[in-house]
Every structure is written in structure tokens, then in C-alpha cells.
Design a protein that fits this description.
Length: 142
């Protein structure tokens, strides 16, 4: 089972917001720290098939492996599972009320990554689509 929401002070990695803002491009910072979303079909990793590990752009925590990436056609990189249950934190998102979504945050630093959806009928082992912003990730090729 995945971790549920927790206080920002209880994440293993604490980020200096000013340092992070100076290090990241504005869109990455807005997505990771403010929960923004990149436009669909614009992200670097939407169609990438490079073998490797996807890590959090804010803290370098391991999040997803290329083996779980699939083409969903949604406009964002899609995965069917994170590398480990502790890699992510799931939070109920009511920002589009009455539609309720599940937000995905980095389990190390609490940065916003995207959302996870279930029961959409994709032919993947978990029947889940982890819809993740490219700008929240970096790919470490094998």
C-alpha cells in the first residue's frame, strides 16, 4: 500500500525553496512546489523509450523505471507503477470538485509529480495510469 498524505516536515528530504527556485526552470518549480501542470504533449518524456530510472527533479529520489512506462496517449508520461510504495505519497485532490483525483507526490521531498488514475482499461498489470509531468522528472539512462 502507498503512503497517504503527511506533513511536509516529516519527509526525509527537506528542500530550501529559494535554492530550488534558483536551480530549476520556472515551470519545473511551479509544478514541483505549487502543483501546477505542464501542457499535454509538450513534455520531454512523453514519447521517450530510453531505458533507465526516472527520478525526482527536486531531490533525485527514484520514482519510476522505464520498464513500467507505457504509451497512454494522454499527453504526459504514463507509468503503471512506481519503483516502490515508499517512493510516492498519495493525496486526495478535490481541486476539480466534484471530480476527485489522487495526487502523486515524491515520497522523499513532497514535491508534486502528477496524478494516478485507476480502472481506465489500459492493458497494464495494475490497471493504473500514473500520469506524471515530465518537468518533475529527470531520466538517468542505464
Amino acid at each position: 500500500m502507498f503512503k497517504k498524505s503527511k506533513e511536509s516536515s516529516s519527509f526525509p528530504v527537506t528542500l530550501d525553496e529559494d535554492e530550488l527556485r534558483a536551480t530549476l526552470d520556472p515551470l519545473s518549480f511551479d509544478v514541483l512546489r505549487r502543483g501546477a501542470t505542464e501542457r499535454p504533449f509538450t513534455g520531454e518524456y512523453v514519447d521517450t523509450e530510453t531505458v533507465g530510472i526516472y527520478k525526482c527533479k527536486a531531490c533525485s529520489g527514484e520514482l519510476f523505471r522505464s520498464e513500467t512506462k507505457f504509451h497512454s496517449g494522454c499527453g504526459w508520461p504514463s507509468f503503471y507503477a512506481p519503483t516502490d510504495a515508499d517512493a510516492v505519497v498519495l493525496i486526495e485532490d478535490k481541486s476539480l470538485w466534484p471530480r476527485v483525483r489522487t495526487e502523486v507526490q515524491c515520497g522523499n521531498c513532497g514535491s508534486h509529480l502528477g496524478h494516478v488514475f485507476e480502472g481506465e482499461g489500459y492493458d497494464v498489470p495494475t490497471d493504473q495510469r500514473w500520469c506524471i509531468n515530465s518537468v518533475s522528472l529527470f531520466l538517468e539512462p542505464k
